[in-house]
Amino acid sequence: MTPSHPEQSRWRVELGRRIGAAYMRDPSVAAVLIAGSASRGDADRDSDVELMLAWAQPPSEAQRRQIVEPLAADHRLFDFDDDWECWQEDLFIGRSEEDAPSSGVLIEVVGQLASVIERRLDDVVQRFEPNLDKQSTIHALLNGIPLHGEELIRAWRAKAEPYPRGLKVAMVDRFAQIDYFADWERFLARGQNLLLIHERFTQVERQLLLVLQALNGRYHYKFKWIERVVDELAVAPQDLAARLRSVLTDDVPAGAETLRQMVEEVYDLVEAQLPEVDVARLRSIFQWRRQAWDAPPPQALPGG
Fold first, then answer.
1. Mean pLDDT of the residues in the chain
2. Residues 198, 118: contact at Cβ < 8 Å?
3. Do strands 29-35 and 49-55 pair parallel, antiparallel, or not at all (unpaired)?
4. Looking at residues 266-284, what average pLDDT do you find?
5. Strand-pair partners of 303
6. pLDDT tens, 60-115?
7. CATH for the stretch 6-161
8. Count of other CB atoms within 10 angstroms of residue 209
9. Phi and psi torsions of 129, nearest 5°
10. DSSP secondary structure string for all residues of 118-162
11. CA 84 to CA 242: how far, in whole Å?
12. From CA 147, how far away is CA 163, in angstroms rounded?
């Protein structure tokens, strides 16, 4: 079960409401909501507070400073991010000590144009784009605490639900193919290269979780709280959380076998839920093992 820290979430939500109120006074702000672990009740002593903004029009730097500077002496304003299509402000509320700047509670404010949010939403739910960053935005819309622009947020939520079957297929197409799994044997034989083995195992685990989120109709968000992610998966291999941990804590051959079994079980679930997916092809790729050679092959190249 996910650890519960209700008091840690409660006061962070209240802090988010006070910061959000300052943004709501700007007429260019179309919507504000509290996102992240505090909105879900998962916050702990290390959690920040995430605010998501929808701007009706691009804000100027002076406009952003006018909101931020009265709220926090310690703050950072970032330039527009072309990849995320967003503006971000980091505010540090309070200080752990008087001479310790930027040691307060982090309030991370991420703002996008409302038209950009609309387009990115359509990319996922209408064009079935398996983009994880865009899905994180949708997850925040669905699970955040609205503070302003409730009607707009309701419209976005209605568009995002239910999770589209076409997106399930796109997510499986993008993340279910697991190549060169048997290479762990080679990495182990070559000096017990645990760096590459664990890197490979964690990548496969991540792919399985992404496929399972899709099968369960759950928009992706970062795997910071793995227990919560697993708790939300009604369709999943048995004892999933414990087995994911054991892959990395058991000896390598045992961990590899546990992971192999989970992959096959996830493929079974894909086959049952999405018959249009070529699971036989996925299994063939996953089960392939590169042949080792101690001597030249018996059949030389033509003309050799």
1. 95
2. no
3. antiparallel
4. 98
5. none
6. 999 999 999 999 999 999 999 999 999 999 999 999 999 999 999 999 999 999 99
7. 3.30.460.10
8. 22
9. -80, 120
10. HHHHHHHHTT----HHHHHHHHHHHHSEEEE-HHHHHHHHHHH-S
11. 34
12. 24
**Residue ranges of the chain assigned to CATH 1.20.120:** 167-287
- For residue 213 the two structure tokens come to 């989120």
Helix (H) or strand (E) holding 202: helix 194-215
Cα–Cα distance measured from residue 250 to residue 3, given in angstroms and rounded to the nearest whole number: 24
Tell me if 106 sits within 8 A of 48, measured CB to CB: yes
CATH 3.30.460.10 maps onto the chain at: 6-161
- Over the stretch 138-188, which tens digit does the pLDDT of each residue have? 999 999 999 999 999 999 999 999 999 999 999 999 999 999 999 999 999
Angstrom distance (rounded) from CA 270 to CA 168: 10
Report the alpha-carbon distance of residue 102 to residue 122 in Å, rounded.
37
- The residue written with tokens 């759950």 in the block is 218
CATH class of 167-287: mainly alpha
